[in-house]
Amino acid sequence: METHKRVLGILYIVSGSIHILIMLTLSALFSVLLPYIFEHAKLDEQWILIYIVPFIQIIAAITIILFAVPSIISGIALLNQKKWGLTLALVLGCFKLFSFPIGTALGIYTIWVYSEDHKHTISTATS
Predict the structure, then answer these.
(1) Domain range for residue 93?
(2) Which long-range contacts (CB under 8 A, 24 or more apart) does 19-25 make?
C-alpha cells in the first residue's frame, strides 16, 4: 500500500505542477495577444476587454490557489508519509473527478488508494 501512496504523491505533484505551467503559459499567451486584440478592437468594444482581462486573471489565480498548490502540498505530504496527506488527496481527488479524462482517472485512483488504506487500517486495528 505504501507504494501506491508514493505513486499517488508523485502524480499529485506532477498534476499540480502541470496545472501551474498551463496557467502560466495561458497568462503569457494572453499578455502577448491582448494588446494586439485591444489595438484592433473598435473604440466602443474596448471597454469589454478592460473588464474581462482582470476577471480572467483573478479566475486563473483562484484556480491555482485552490487546486494546484494543494495538489503539490498533498503530494509532498504523501511522499513524507503524513496521515493528513491522504485525506487532502481524497478531497482533491473528488474535485478531479470532473476533469475528464486524466483528472477522472486520478480521482478514481485516489479514492481506491484511500479505501484500501482505510480497509487495511481497520483490519490491522481489529487483529
Answers:
(1) 2-126
(2) 19/63, 19/64, 19/67, 19/68, 19/71, 20/64, 20/68, 23/60, 23/63, 23/64, 23/68
